[in-house]
Amino acid sequence: MAGDDKDESLAPGLHVDGLRALYEQAPASLVGNAIGMALIGLAFWPLASAPRLLGWLAAAVLFAALRLAHYLRYRAARDSDGATLLAWRSSWRALVLAQGSMWPLAVWLFWGLGAAFHTVMLIVIANSYTLASVQLLAPQRKLFFVFSCIVLLPTMARVASDTSQAWHWQLAGVLGLVFVVAMTLGRAYRGALSQAIGLKQRTEQLAAQLRVEKAAADAARRSAEAANSAKTRFFAAASHDLRQPLHAMGLFAEALRQKSQRANDPEVVSLVNSINQSVDALEGLFGELLDITRIDSGGVEVQSGPVSIKALFARLRLTFEPTAFEKGLALSFHGERHFAHTDGLLLERILRNLVSNAIRYSEDGGVLVACRPKPGDKGRLIVQVWDSGIGIGQASLPQIFDEFYQVQTIRPIEPHQPKGLGLGLAIVKRLADLLEARLGVRSRLGHGTVFTLEVPLGRAPRSLAPAAAAGAARLGLTLQGRRLVVVEDEPAVREGLTVLLAAWGAAVEAFEDIGTLQQWLATPALDAPDLLIVDYRLPEGRTGVDALACLRARWPAQTLPAVVITGSSLGGHEDEAAEHDFHLLIKPVLPNKLRAMIGFKLGLR
Asked: For residue 534, how many other CB atoms are within 10 A of its CB?
């Protein structure tokens, strides 16, 4: 008996809970069997002889009653020890097999009676009980195999023996496939249950260990924090490689759009625009992940200074007015005359996230972005984002700034609106903490939400340089007659850049590393290029700064404008950019961003 228990246990590590789970499923199994008996009784009452049908029903009811009695015995003694429950398992198995034998018996007794519907019903019932037994019996490998053989093999034999039907062998073969499928499902379920039980046991062991080692909890927490920090650093360092496919996809899609426009193929243009929209969405989601990484790894530095609320609101209006208009929302700004003393880029990123969420979760009414002095504290400003959206329940408010937490809304989000990853407000909270700005939220379900941010009051600088016009470069940007040099080690990105720049009219010289670049530079009588576009990380431990040095050494009398593209989200290249006179772009670089940067570097209007 011990060997049998070891071989046919529910799963490795079967314990009392596993046996209890088996017996607890008896009511559901009995209900399913009762339905099958009722179906056969109703279907064959006018077709089969009374002794045959009543005899079958009597046997089926008898086995069901015995199984019910077995369950009631267990229910009356649920707290029995494991040895008692294990002793009951033999009778439980016997009753399961006995009741299972009633279905192939029904096939043999009633086969050929009535119309094709009755034949199909018999086969369906036999198959259904075989597949339904997976959850109950599959953990016991031998019992499940025997049960499946008892139900399906006699059914297959009866189908194959019916020579009055031309398709009897084919149908028997189909039942054989059902048998194979049942065995496969049983094996998969058995493995999953085995893992679940193993995990439960492991969890119990860990819980006991944690209770014993409570004194070491602080050390374990520090270890977990170190592991999380290592994960953050790894993700940030690997972001260069993670960004490459997305970067190349955007370049190729834009090049294809340019060609399809010239070919006057609106269908292809529409498809490419859809690809570009998907790339934009991917960039947004990827950007959120990398923002979290940069903040957690200390790659974001606060650079405080005077911030014009008017200029900030103007940029927000330019970005979000079309989206608000499309949804029929009023987007308003008040308090533009003030100045704050904080990091303008970080403050703008916070407000962009809040305004984007406000528009996304509002279907009517509007969104208000306001700035005013804090009552009772003239040294601070309050910046608020109000919306008339769906609101947030009080139970969810403490969790909305957690990573990957998404509020369950009472109204569904429109299909065209990206749901996001649940990182936007987590980024807002981290950035607010970096600025040491108090962040608050109030909300009422069905009425709307207001986010409040407190920042130091600032003063207007004595002279303000006119701000550069924001927005995308003109779609008609042409690089006809311009010569560009590209240094990029990733073949797909290098080819995408070459194709895209050529589509804009440029003559492109592309190189995979500094070695091939130096060979080209050794060619006599070279004309100086108009712009340099280089990847930061190059083979053999070289960098884009080294590539720029080689190129500028070839034409020392000329100032060669340069753009360096990097996939690193840790930052730290800003000092190099100032020292070596280049502008920095972070991958994935979408075509609109690249086009705007090229236009800026070449002074194109």
From this structure: 25
Residue 85 to residue 92: CA distance in whole angstroms: 10
User: Does residue 216 form part of some domain?
Assistant: no
What length does the chain have? Answer: 605
The Cα 338–Cα 440 span in angstroms is 21
Residue 328 sits at the vertex; the CA angle it makes with 327 and 331, to the nearest 5 degrees, is 95
Q: Which H or E run includes 395?
A: none
Mean pLDDT of the chain: 78
State the pTM of this model.
0.38
Type of residue at 538 = L
Q: How far is CA 391 from CA 72, 327, 470, in A?
A: 50, 17, 32
How confident is the model at residue 302, as a pLDDT? 77
425 pLDDT above the threshold of 50: yes
Distances (CA, A) of 33 to 40, 45, 68, 431: 11, 18, 12, 61
377-387 and 366-374 strand pairing: antiparallel
C-alpha dihedral sign at 311, 314, 318, 324: positive
Asked, as a colleague might, if the bond just before 588 is cis with ω within 30 of 0, I would say yes
Q: Look up tokens 């008609």; give the residue.
A: 476
Whole-number percent of the chain with pLDDT over 90? 13
Question: Has residue 467 been placed in a domain?
Answer: no
**In a shared domain, residues 271 and 346:** no
Residue 443 pairs with which residues in a beta bridge?
A: 449
Distance (Å, whole) CA 25 – CA 21: 7
Would residue 215 count as lying in a domain? no
DSSP codes joined into one string, 97-148 = HHHHTHHHHHHHHHTT-SSHHHHHHHHHHHHHHHHHHHHHHTTSHHHHHHHH
Question: Considering just the CA atoms, what is the radius of gyration of the chain in Å?
Answer: 36
Q: Which tokens belong to 70?
A: 């077995």
Q: Which of 210, 241, 263 is the last residue of a domain?
A: 210
326 and 247 share one domain: no
Place of tokens 């006119």: 466
Q: Same domain, yes or no, for 357 and 319?
A: yes
Distance CA 13, CA 490 (A): 51
Q: What is the mean pLDDT of residues 544-553?
A: 93
Strand, helix or coil at 516?
helix
Listed in order, strand segments (DSSP E) in 410-466 are 439-444, 448-456
Structural domain contains residue 337: yes
Domain with 177 in it: 2-210
**DSSP 8-state class, residue 204:** H
* Domain co-membership, 205 together with 242: no
What is the mean predicted confidence (pLDDT) over 243-247? 64
Label residue 197 exposed, middle or buried (CB < 10 Å: 0-12, 13-18, 19+): buried
